[in-house]
Specification:
Pfam families: DSBA, ScsC_N. About 60% of the residues lie in helices and about 10% in strands.
């Protein structure tokens, strides 16, 4: 089963890879571990043997530096393969949840389109804001694609406030109200607070008092908890993250052409 590599690996994942690569480089340059090296049936290597092995490795690197490059490339390939396997397992375990929109989800495009793309987004995420016009264009150009919007709050208190407002809007007026509030919030340049949310709600044609009440209610809390749990289950590390038909994932900022290319690959199998 194919897997799409991350468009822009999240910072934490990149940091882990850099640490791992530094480790393998150190192992090559410094030689074998004093506790883990074994000399076949003869037990551990002696100090002289280890020194000789280190000298051989260093001489080899001087003669052919590509040995180190190849070692790093091999480690990178192994780490990516492990990440891909972990992601495939996580998607398989959550395929039903990813393929069946929850009642509180909003859907861009035809509700019964054959291809489902789930987007996990944070209303305060600049990349999520930037991709919005591309998502509108995508479902316009391809009527057999639907995008299930799952709002999550990963960027702090302001994100939580705006996520609550978007989820609460759906309780007041369904998907139409959801998208009106979503677009009002994600187009706004001011830092959100309770007063600003009320203003945006009024501008979006919603009842600010009811919105404030619903934001603090159990239904909104349940929606956000479910979205967060699903995001954690598929090892989401940032927003936006797109999941195609519950089988393929692309995390990070993408544009319209990249989305269309991913859809074409999914359809080819």
């Amino acid at each position: 089963m194919p897997y799409f590599a991350p468009v822009r690996p999240p910072a934490r994942r990149a940091a882990r890879r850099r640490a791992a690569l530094s480790g393998v480089a150190a192992a090559i340059l410094l030689g074998l571990s004093t506790t883990g090296a074994r000399a076949g049936d003869g037990g551990t290597f002696t100090a002289d043997q280890r020194k000789e092995i280190v000298a051989i490795v260093r001489d080899a690197l001087k003669t052919d530096p590509t040995i180190l490059t190849d070692a790093i490339a091999a480690l990178r390939a192994g780490a990516e393969a492990q990440e891909q396997a972990t992601t495939r397992d996580a998607l398989a375990a959550n395929r039903a949840a990813l393929g069946t929109p929850a009642p509180t989800d909003a859907i861009l495009g035809a509700p019964h389109a054959r291809m489902t793309i789930v987007e996990f987004y944070d209303p305060r995420c600049p990349y999520c804001r930037k991709v919005l016009p591309d998502l509108d264009r995508l479902v316009h150009d391809d009527p057999d694609v639907r995008i299930v919007e799952k709002v999550v709050a990963v960027l702090g208190p302001a994100s939580l406030l705006t996520a609550q407002a978007i989820a609460a809007a759906a309780l007041q007026g369904g998907q139409d109200a959801y998208f009106r509030m979503q677009r009002a919030i994600m187009a706004d340049s001011q830092k959100p607070d309770a007063a600003r949310i009320r203003t945006l709600a009024a501008q979006a044609g919603l009842d600010p008092d009811r919105l404030a009440t619903d934001m603090a209610g159990s239904a909104v809390a349940s929606t956000l908890r479910a979205n967060s749990t699903l995001a954690t289950s598929i090892h989401l590390e940032g927003t936006p993250t797109f999941v195609f038909d519950g089988r393929y994932v692309i995390p990070g900022a993408v544009d319209l052409d990249e989305l269309k290319a991913a859809i074409a690959k999914v359809r080819r199998g």
